[in-house]
Design a protein that fits this description.
mainly alpha
């Protein structure tokens, strides 16, 4: 495995770990220890589903129209969901030739985001929000577009022997 490809894989795995920490484990380890010892016993997926947002664009509209929410919180949430997945699309595209078709990156972003949202729902680690899936998927696809632009501009595919061998 070429050194550049190895470094990119290590970066991708490190990024996925960081993404998982930021999505599922936002709070301190002590919180999760206590939560899983006591609170989780009383939690049910049904409770989580009652809090879930399954209406597309409702959270985005709420954030856009709300004057009561902290503007920094709104921006962090919306931009974080979008920009947080851009590297996923970029790494997938540059590391795995199969993902050089936009539809596959779109589906991978959707599936990864759905997995995170389902984990939040099942384990009570957050609130399931379809708008997060929409923004995460768009972010992942944006990573693909960035790769595509770089490829057209700098001809990365001719250097693929460094990455795919």
């Amino acid at each position: 495995m070429p050194v550049l490809k190895f470094i990119l894989w290590v970066g991708f795995i490190a990024f996925l770990i960081l993404l998982t920490k930021n999505i599922l484990f936002k709070k301190s380890p002590r919180f999760y220890k206590n939560n899983f010892k006591s609170e989780y016993r009383r939690y049910s997926v049904k409770q989580g589903w009652e809090k879930a947002n399954t209406k597309p664009f409702s959270t985005i509209k709420l954030f856009y129209n709300s004057r009561n929410l902290n503007p920094e919180y709104k921006q962090d949430n919306l931009w974080g969901n979008l920009l947080g997945f851009v590297p996923v699309g970029f790494f997938l595209t540059i590391l795995i030739p199969f993902f050089r078709k936009g539809i596959y990156v779109l589906l991978a972003g959707f599936c990864l985001s759905l997995c995170f949202e389902m984990a939040q729902l099942i384990f009570g680690l957050g609130i399931f929000d379809v708008d997060d899936i929409i923004l995460n998927t768009a972010g992942c696809f944006s990573g693909y577009i960035i790769y595509w632009v770089f490829n057209k501009t700098f001809r990365l595919q001719k250097k693929d022997s460094l990455l795919t061998s």
